[in-house]
Amino acid sequence: MINYIFKRLLLSIVVLFGITLITFVIIHITPGGPTILQTQMNTKVSPDSVARLKALYDLDKPLHIQYIKWLKRFIKLDFGESFVDNSPVIKKIIERLPATLTLNILSLFFIFLIAIPIGIFSAVKQDSFYDKTFTTISFIGFSIPTFWLALLLMLLFGVYLQILPISGMRSPNAENFPFLLNLWDRIKHLILPVFVSAFGGIASISRYTRSSMLEVIRQDYIRVARAKGLSEKEVIFKHALKNALLPIITILGLSLPGLIGGGFIFETIFAWPGMGRLGYDSAMSFDYPVIMGVVTIGALLTLIGNLIADITYALVDPRIRYQ
Amino acid sequence: MTQGLGTSKESKKLKKIKKEKIMKDRTEGIWQIIWRRLKKNKFAIFGMVVIILLSIIAIVSPLISPYNPYEQNLTERLQPPSLKHLCGTDELGRDVFSRMLYGSRISLSVGLIAVLIATTIGIIVGSISGYFGGVVDNILMRFVDIMLSIPTLFLILMLIVFLGPSIFNVMLVIGLTAWTDLARLVRAEFLSLKNREYVLAAKAAGAGHFRIIFRHILPNALSPVFVSVIFGVAGAILLESSLSFLGLGVQPPTASWGNILTSGKDYIESAWWLSFFPGFAIFITVMSYNLLGEGLRDALDPRLIE
Questions:
Q1: Residue B22 pLDDT class (50, 70, 90 cuts)
Q2: Could you tell me if A302 lies within 8 Å of chain B, comparing CB atoms?
Q3: Contacts of A284 in chain B (CB under 8 A)
Q4: How many contacts does A have with B, using Cβ atoms within 8 A?
Q5: Cα distance from A221 to chain B (closest Cα, Å)?
Q6: A5, A219, A247, B58: which could form a disulfide with B104 (CB 3.0–4.6 Å)?
Q7: Residues B194, B217: contact at Cβ < 8 Å?
Q8: Given A23, A148, A295, which is nearest B261 (Cβ)?
Q9: What's the complex ipTM?
Q10: pTM here?
């Protein structure tokens, strides 16, 4: 088991290294860059001062030296300072992390709370009216553009019914509210973003649960469980469910990059001050250190998620460990 | 009672039908079989009909659009839908319906070309990885792992910003990031096919690696590729519209479904039609490709024999 974890850990480190290298190369070899943004508006800028600007950011050095320099600082968890406002990148990310984590953890929670029962129910009552209804809804979930769903909900709840706020994390004067009202204000601001980010996930996880469950209930040991006279409830929840949920653990790990990386679209729509929004803003202003920081932290969270999923899988399924 | 057994005359008839069916099966080619199976799935057919209609609309849009999509008419800004303007007008008084007709060209061409790029890369990487195995396979698959761990949308956003937003770059970037799933699929097919007898026979006959990969194995690995291409078009259309919505895709004044939605967000308090219609068009298009893809997957699945 320790061997297995060690192997997975080593692989994750290699992947993380690769991610930082690819990102670094992409942002440095492509034509756009911070000096262009700062100088193209002003024709009076001399080539001399462009060179000085590049020297200031170390952009005049060869690529591998820049990367090694970045790597050395990264090992000490130092991502450098933002080109835009000179504040430390790590501070910027830590400021934004709670907003992103709140959103992602809540939507993951709802995805599993809602998707798994739907999946089980659809599988047990295969081809029933409910199964077909859920299939249709999940098909809509796959095909609907997230940002359109967000716009429709904003139209319905924000503009017409006027019962939910359409942007931000809280109302401007929320600090002065009494505690409960303040909490309610926070929850109201969370409802639409969490719903939108969970919708696609519910669609796919419920489909995975359904097909996994369908496969399991055709196995011999389920027939044995039925044959020895167990109630249907016991067969489904005690014998089938455990095995059907195994692959879902992996899916959970795989869905993390989508949640973290897909975040910037609805973080932009809902003006949600999270990591996705920070990444979007930093890319728009060619803020290299912040881009590297956001990608690395995002990848780190994803890899940790995957690692936990793999280890959990190995813990509950002994077949994996002995491979 | 003899319910269900039927008379001898009926059973003779049944036998005859069965025999005819078997004869028909024998003379059918693979495409005929797929088509016969696909035809039974009414959702897939619905998807296919919508896709064909949309393609025709995209081609003839200059002929059928009621207004010039670029013509501004500031006296008719933000008009709600009416008989004169079927989907209303935008903040510059342009006819949204005409802009959507022209936008269909963008969505479909981005979808097709991006998928063409992704499929080419995916097939090449997947077949090399699966066929040669060993170190080559290891390196290529770790690279795929890395690509899969970078949040795709963020990678695309970064590439677009740094290359500059344009329709060409959108196609290129979606193509360059969307090949990983396909590479894995093709690799898996190659792993199971490369030790078959007919491959050994080809080797024994002296065929080179290139010929074995492309002439002998690949044609047999194509059916999952086919399904994944259809799903890929749906994914690429979604991505293009998201990018255009964020202002990183097709640049105004060129119309695309995504960038009409951008004005929809800006005028969400006053003009619902700007958010509703273009999004609905994206939704229907993406869903049609998904329905066709799902239908094809079932039709190509040898385990689901009727």
A1: low
A2: yes
A3: 161
A4: 134
A5: 23
A6: B58
A7: yes
A8: A148
A9: 0.80
A10: 0.83
